[in-house]
Amino acid sequence: MNVVNRVATGSRVNGNLQFEGGLLVQGELSGQIQVNGRLIVWKGGMVRGNIRVNGDLYLFGQLGADEGTASDTQLECHGMAYVAQTGTSTGTLMAKRLQLYEGADLRGPFRTLKLGGSVPVLHDVQSQ
Hints:
Elements lengths: L4 E3 L4 E9 L2 E3 L2 E9 L2 E3 L4 E8 L3 E3 L2 E2 L10 E10 L4 E2 L2 E9 L4 E2 L3 E3 L16
Parallel strand pairs: 1-3, 2-4, 3-5, 4-6, 5-7, 6-8, 6-9, 7-9, 8-10, 9-11, 10-12, 11-13
């Protein structure tokens, strides 16, 4: 899948971060995040904060905190968002296209993005 970055199991990373070449999250990642490539959130992994994915999202783990509200986590995906049977989203999920598998758990709001459009809530990491 050509993913060159990884947050390993047991690791916690927080901050204003940008990843080139995709990212595999097996631990915990939070903050203002931009991923240029695929974002894969593995089973047992969790992402929180404001996340922009310029590629596809594969959600096998958790988007948002268990006890957080949907406004705590917002993910904007400019590709296809796949939510697997083990995937859970308590945050706001916005994607150009969305594919849910049987058993996927969407507890927060979700919507599709208009072609060529962007949601103004999130900002590029570089502009801050």
